[in-house]
Amino acid sequence: MKRSKTMELGVGLFMLAGILGLVFLGLRVSGLSLSAPSDTFTVQANFANIGGLKPRARVTMAGVNVGRVSAIELDTDWYDARVTMELNADLEGRLSRDTTAAILTAGLLGEQYIGLSVGGDPETLSDGDTLTDTQSALVLEELIQQFVSNMVSN
Amino acid sequence: MKDTPLVEVDDLHFSRGDKEIFRGVSLRIPRGKITAIMGPSGTGKTTLLKLIGAQLVPDAGRVRIDGQDVHALSRKALFRLRRRMGMLFQSGALFSDLDVFENVAFPLRVHTDLPEPMIRDLVLMKLQAVGLRGARHLTPAELSGGMARRVALARAIALDPELILYDEPFVGQDPISMGVLVQLIKRLNEALGLTAVVVSHDIKETLSIADYVYVIADGQVMAEGTPASLDVDQDARVSQFVHGEPDGPVPFHYPAVDFYRDILDTGERR
Amino acid sequence: MIRRITALGRQGCELLEALGRSGLFLAQSAVGRPSREGLFLWLRQMHFVGVLSLAIVLVSGLFIGMVLALQGYTILVDFGAEQALGQMVALSLLRELAPVVAALLFAGRAGSALTAEIGLMKATEQLTSMEMIGVDPLRRVVAPRLWAGFVSLPILTVGFSVVGIYGGFLVGVEWLGVFDGSYWGNMQASVDFIGDVGNGMLKSLVFALVVTWIAVFQGYDLIPTSEGISRATTRTVVYSSLAVLGLDFVLTAVMFGGLS
What we know:
The complex is a heterotrimer. Chain B is of the alpha/beta class. Chain B has helices at about 45-50, 75-80, 100-110, 115-130, 145-155, 175-190, 205-210, 225-230, 235-245, 260-265, and strands at about 5-15, 20-30, 35-40, 60-65, 70, 85-90, 165, 195-200, 210-215, 220-225.
């Protein structure tokens, strides 16, 4: 059986291009970083209303990405939303216990994300802790309703 | 063991759709001889070869090669048996993506672990036998019909089979390549002691090399015997076929209603 | 009326029989110990099926990405949301367009050629003679082609996405003036590697299997005449296109439609 070197080279390049393309899709398009995903710790927070927050939404601190929402479920003890977040491991032991979590909206109609802001407690958060100080999503309809009822009562 | 026939076909029945092709055909193909299977076209001679090669399964009856029932073998055992058989196809059936050399080398590469120089020697030997050693670098598309069939013959004998099946080897050949093929088949049989089955309707060429002839028509063996005995056979159908008379017991016309009525019967049916 | 129902029943039986035959065919050809020889045959088919389809797939990908950016821009700019262009281009390519369009092109370019090639080998008795030599044509002819198709199409799909996203970048950023930081940034914020790239690839693998399967089976199962070959080639393109589009809906519903 005759073997053609150019053909083998062509197929090799073809497959290499496929792998490189996948790497491109991973790094440049999905924004994966090369650090291992295990370098995270989880904290939880209960919100009275999460609005349109979805799993995989960003978690930011001062506008910088520090993690992702990994799960959202209904807490049947309090009937509010229990949000689990994965935060970068290098923040473990640096966030104060009274850190607040707020659900924010990017722009007027943009996606919703969680913003964290540090408090002053000397004790720090560790894996599995729950944030107590939370601020629910702003729901546009409720705002309008409030505004209208204020107008009426005035 | 030497005296038992290599191929035994017993009471073979086969039909395709509603059309019955064989209604109880029995044949004995002796070792080391050339056996011809003849008959008018459309009597399923090629089908018979495919049944012997176990590419088709009969409705009833048995085909035994060297005592083994070919249709009862497992796929693996069948492929092992086929290694001992060669088949020459009507169209040659050369692999179009391989050149002449590689076509002949194909069975050797698949079934043996011979080193490359040995394969080269064997292939050149086989090509020399069919007179095409010089054409080894051509592709099948560059060969004439006669050459393609000779290459196919070289490929069929590459593994030195015991049994070789020729499917219409003379069809569509000019007189020269026909002569070459007749000589080749004869010589291979004599030199290698091959058992050969030739399916053909070219009477003169076939009778000149066959040791024994079966004539098949209407799904049955109509006559059998040596070429000499067939030539003087009294049966009207046999003599019509052997002497190539256009009309006789085997009608020239396909069955139809009376010609006169058919012509006048316009309008209703076609 | 009864005759029609009978005809329907017969067609159903025939369809079921063809499905069974093709399933058996797939199982027999795909399974088997790989060998050095097989590897080489596979390599040759990779060249034929994959490398030679690369040009048409990449060019189409580039144009589709460019058109997406152009169309998307005109719509998004009305909402003042043209920063979301990268996200839109990337998501539509990764989730839908790349797997589907690459599979359709692949069916037309490589699938039909596979059918015709195997069909011609059947018509010239090459498959039968291979069987008589004692070589299983399913292993020797069909399996390398099946595997080559199965591996090639996902690679082609990746190429399609990459080139398409780049095409969107050319039009959106270079030509229409979207800020390139927001093109890539929005894309990175919204594209999930497993959820979007991974599911797109999964779709592509399914399409690859279905398209190559249809192509080689049509070639192997056709009536060996010139008319039979031309019909089977047409059938390959028609059936694979329908299968790809139909399966795409099902897969999308399962993956992204909250049906999981």
